[in-house]
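Example complex used in Figure S2.
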Amino acid sequence: MAAAVASQAVAAMASVAGIAVSLASSSSSQVARLQLTTPAAPSSFGIGRCHLLTRSSATSDFGSTAPKKHAVSKVATNAVVVINSDNYGSALLYFSHELLLFEALREGLEEELDRDPTVCVIGEDVGHYGGSYKVTKGFAEKFGDWRLLDTPICENSFTGMAIGAAMTGLRPVIEGMNMGFLLLAYNQIANNCGMLHYTSGGQFTIPVVIRGPGGVGRQLGAEHSQRLESYFQSVPGLQMVACSTPYNAKGLMKAAIRSENPVILFEHVLLYNLKEKIPDEEYICCLEEAELVRPGEDITILTYSRMRYHVTQAAKTLVNKGYDPEIIDIRSLKPFDMYTIGQSVKKTHRVLIVEECMRTGGIGASLRAAIMENFFDELDAPIGCLSSQDVPTPYSGPLEELTVVQPPQIVAAVEQLCMRG
Amino acid sequence: MFFNSWLWRSRHLSRSPLLLLRSRSIFLASSCTTELLACQNASEHQHSRKLPSTVPRIRPWWNVSWSSSYRNPSMEAEKTVASGEDSYGNESKQASSTEFLDFPGGKVSYINELQFLSESSPVRVPCFQLLDEYGQVAEHACLPEVDKLLAVKMYRNMVLLQTMDTLFYEAQRQGQFTFYLTTIGEEAINIASAAALSNDDIVYAQYREPGVLLWRGFSLNEFANQCFTNNLDYGKGRQMPVHYGSSKLNYPTVSSPIATQLPHAVGAAYALKMENNPACTVTFFGDGASSEGDFHAAMNFAAVLEVPVLFICRNNGFAISTPTAEQFKSDGVVAKGQAYGMRSIRVDGNDTLAMYATIKAARVMAISESRPILIEALTYRVGHHSTSDDSAKYRKQDEMQHWKMIRDPVFRFRRWLEGQRWWDPEADKQLRSESRKEVLAAIRSAGPLKKPSLSSLFTDVYDSVPSNLKHQEEEVRATVSRHWSDYPSDVPL
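Predicted assembly (914 residues):
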C-alpha cells in the first residue's frame, strides 16, 4: 500500500515536471501554476487537492520560514497568480475561494491567531473597531480584546511594547494605521527591534511583524503617502517584504508571523480591494523569494507592490508592440532575491526597475547597485530605474499622478532600453 | 477603596468562574496591602506583620486562560452607579442631572468660578523613609520583615557592588577597556529593589543597575567578560561595557538610548498578564529619562492596559550635566503618576530598608491588582555620569564629597546593621578586602582572554546568516588575508 502510494506520488511528481516543462515552453502562458497529487488524497483525475508550490531550487539561508519545499525541477516554478484571470486558460483551481486582498490578510492573520496562542495584534483601532482597513474585523470578539489590543496613540510606545512582549515570548503583529506613522516608531525599530537579538548575543529574539498600508494613495496628502521601505532598508536585523496580490498577501503574512526575525510587511493602500481566487488549503510564501509574474526574453522589469499593476498594464502595450518583457515582483525588499533576479538578468541582459520610492535612496537605488555589483558582465545596457521624484506627494490629483510612475513611462523606458546594444 | 473595587468587579462574576477566582484573590491581596499601609506603630513590627511572600497563584484547572484574553472590566468607560446608559457608556443619574456635566470621558461636577488648578501643590510629596541619615530607625517607622541573613546579604552585595564599581572604573582609567559608568551612591536602590523582587520578575534596566544582576547571581567574571568584551561575553562583544544582559536571570540586554526600555517593560508585562503569570516587570530609569517621549507613552499605556509594571525612577539629581531644576518643572517624577492614573510613591533611595519595603509592597500591588506603580527614589549620583564625563565642571567638589562620605547609603545601612548587632568593623574590613581581591581576580582573568571571532560579526543579525551577509563576510576575510599585518593579532578569525 505504501509502495503504491509512493509510486503514485512519484508518478505525480513526474507528471508535474512534465506539466511544468510544457508550461514554460508555451509562449502564451502567463502563469506557472502546478498541481500535485498528494499521496493522501488521490483522485480519479490524477489531480487531487491543489497544493501550490513555491520555488524550490534556490537555497535560502533564512531557514526557519522554509515552507514545504519540493525539489521539482529547474524550471521557474513560482506559483503565481495573476489578477486578470481571463488569461488563465485551463489552469483553474478546484478548491479555492475568491476574496479581496484585505480579506486575504485577515484570513492569514486569523489562521495564525488560531494556530498559535502567543500571536497577538497591537495597534490603534484594531480591536472592536476591526482595524482601519478591516483587516482585523471580528477578531476581538473571537480572540478577546487582550489579544487584539487597542492602544492609545503612541506608535513608539506600542512598537516598544511589542518588542518587550516579543522578548518575553509572544509574537506580536504591530499594525501601523499608515506606514508613515511608523516614523514615530523609528527609534524602537532601528535601535531595538533590529538590534537586540544581535547586541544581546542571541539571548533574546524579537519575532515581531510590523505591518500597515503605505505608498501613494488617492489624494491622501504628503504625510499619508510615505514610502517607508526607503527609510527602513538600511536597518540591520530587519527583513522587509511587500505584498501585491491576495495570494502573496496571505502567504507572506503567515510566513512573517512564523519567522523568528522581525519582519516588516508593506501593504499598499490602493491594493486592499484587489480580488482574486486563493487556495483553500493552507500555504505560506517564502519571505526571501521573488515572484515571476510574466516570463519573457527581452528585458527584465523588476517591481513590487502597486507598481506591479502599472507594469503589467504597460506589458500589454509592450507585447502588442512586439516586446517580450519578463516581469518579476521582487516581493522581498530586504534581502533581495538575487538568485531569481540574476537568473532573469542572465537571460534578458537588460533591466528596468519600476518603483514608487523616491529617486534618492529608494529600493530602486539599492537594487540597481546590487545588480550592477553582481551582474555587471551580463548587462547590455545601463540599468534603468523609474521612480517617483524627490518631492513630497502633493494632494492635488493631477500633480499626484505625475509623481507616480505611469504605464506610458514604462513603455517608453523599455523601448529606450531595448534599442541600445 | 479596595472593597469597593472588589464589589464592582463582582458584578461581572456571571461572565466566568475564572473572574471570580481572580477577583477573590485580588480582594485577599488588597487586604494584605491595606494592612501593610495601615501599619502605624514602630513597635508593631515586632508582631511580624507578614508581607505575603508569594502572590496567590491563579491557575485555572482547565488549560485556557480565557480571562486573560480580555481586558479588566475596569478598563471599560468610566461608569457611575445609576440606572440607564447613554451611548457613551455613561449611566445617567436621573435625580440630580443639573449637578453634573455629561461627557464621553465621564461625569464631572461643575463650578461657576473661573479657577485654574495651581501648577504645583503647596506641599511637596513627602518622602518615605525608615532609617534616618545615621542609620537609626525613624520615629513611627514600621520596618519590613528583614532577618539577619537577608540584611547581611544585602549589605555584602552593596559592598561588593561598590568595590566592583571603584575597581572597574580604575581599570577603565588605566585603559583596560574603553568605557564604564558607576552606581556609586545608588547601591541601596540597586540591591534593595533586587532583594524585594523575585527572580521571575523581568528587569528592564537603563544602565545604572548592575546591582540587580549581582544580586541574582551574575558573577564578577561575567561582569568583567562583558566589560572586556572577550569571547566569553554573553553579548559576544557587540555592546558597550556596562550593557549587561542575561536571559537566564531575566535581565534583558541594556540598550543605550534612554527610556526605550520603558515601553518594553510594558509589553513584557502585557505578555505576563496574557499568560496569567504571577510576576511583574520592573523598569529602572533616571530623572532625565522622564523627559523622553517613551516615558509618557509607557506610563500611559501601562495605566490604560492595567499591567503589572514597576516604574522605578532613580532621581539622582543630574542627567549628565542637566540638573533636575532644568529637567522638569513638576514636583519631581512622583507627581506625574497621578496625571496618568497611576499609583505612585516617593521614597528615600539611600535608605535600604525603605526601598526594600516600598518595592516589596509595590510588587504585591502590581501583581495582585494588575496595575502599574511609579516609585521615585530620591538619591544622588556620587560618581560622574560615566568615564566620558567630568562632573567637576558643573557641580561643586565639596557637594560630591559630602554625599560620598557622609550620605553614603552603604554606610548608613551598616550603621543600622551594627546597631542590630548583626555586623562589626572587623567583619567589614574582611568583607572589603575579600571583595577587592575577588574583583581584581576577575579583572585579571578577563583581560588576557581572546576577543570574539570575526565570524561573530555576522551571526545573530538574523536567526541564521543570510547569503548577503555570508558574501560580506567573505569580502572581509579576503581583505584581512591581504593585509594580514594590519589585522589585530588577538582577534581570532
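Chain B has 14 helices and nine strands. The mean pLDDT of chain B is 84.
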